[in-house]
Design goal:
The chain has one domain: Immunoglobulin-like. By secondary structure, it is mainly β. It is flat, with a radius of gyration of 18 Å. It has 2 helices and 14 strands; from the N terminus they run αββββββαββββββββ. β4 and β5 form a beta hairpin. The chain is about 5% helix and about 50% strand.
């Protein structure tokens, strides 16, 4: 945990958003967060779902989208669609200097931001004193994967992006996808990734998985899918690569 906290302190700013609204659903919701310390340029940005509370009677449909990102702030929208009732969603996020930032200047330490936002009528922000929490989902079965970066690196360059696949009424999963970096890294980077969107049939257990299959200097490959009898119609991921 100390190494993880050291890494997060060196890398940038991060936090969590958690909304709870049972028995009434407060979604969709938009939340704008201002960085405690502005970046020199628009940062690389990572976010993923860390908690879900959904009604079992409808299909699992949940998504978080990055609506705006600047060097000073960002906006996330948490939502569902159609008849799905959502009572709670948690999102974890991290921002760190982009490639353009670090090529201009040596990496500068940014004070990390730790926050949780809860909603039950009014929205109150509470500050956490501990580090990055483990992902947790209120689902029958779930398996997110996070690969953390090397805290020993002093000069850090980063790149981030989104991948998604939707195929209703026919499930296209599993799929294997190779993502090309806009700018190749000098050495193989570390890759962090997580789920940002789900669309799963209500009649089976919720099973979703993203697995890193390989990393090269210019790209990485991921496996996206489910298993057993689960029918998946949509799956989205966010990723961040850092050397």
């Amino acid at each position: 945990m100390k190494l993880l906290q050291l890494f997060l302190t060196m890398l940038g700013q991060f936090g969590e958003l958690l909304y709870k609204g049972y028995p009434f659903t407060p979604f969709p919701l938009k939340r704008t967060i201002v960085f405690e310390t502005p970046f020199e340029e628009k940062p690389a940005f990572m976010y993923a779902i860390k908690m879900l509370d959904l009604n079992y009677a409808e299909n699992t449909r949940a998504a978080v989208e990055l609506k705006n990102l600047t060097n000073q702030e960002f906006t996330l929208e948490m939502k569902t669609v159609h008849d799905t009732q959502m009572y709670g969603m948690g999102v974890t996020w991290m921002a760190c200097p982009s490639n353009a930032d670090t090529r201009k200047n040596r990496f500068k330490t940014n004070k990390p931001r730790h926050s949780t936002v809860e909603s039950s009528g009014d929205y109150t922000e509470k500050w956490r004193k501990h580090g990055f929490t483990q992902a947790y989902f209120i689902l029958s079965w779930f398996s997110p994967y996070f690969i953390f970066l090397d805290p020993q690196q002093q000069d850090v360059s980063s790149e981030s992006g989104d991948e998604d696949e939707q195929g209703f009424p026919v499930s296209p999963f599993p799929i294997i996808r190779t993502i090309q970096f806009k700018t190749p890294f000098v050495a193989k980077p570390s890759v962090m990734y997580g789920i940002t969107m789900l669309d799963i049939n209500y009649a089976e257990n919720n099973r979703a998985k993203i697995q890193l299959m390989g990393v090269e200097k210019s790209n990485f490959t991921v496996w996206m899918g489910t298993m057993y009898d689960t029918k998946m119609y949509g799956l989205g991921m966010r990723w961040m690569a850092c050397d």
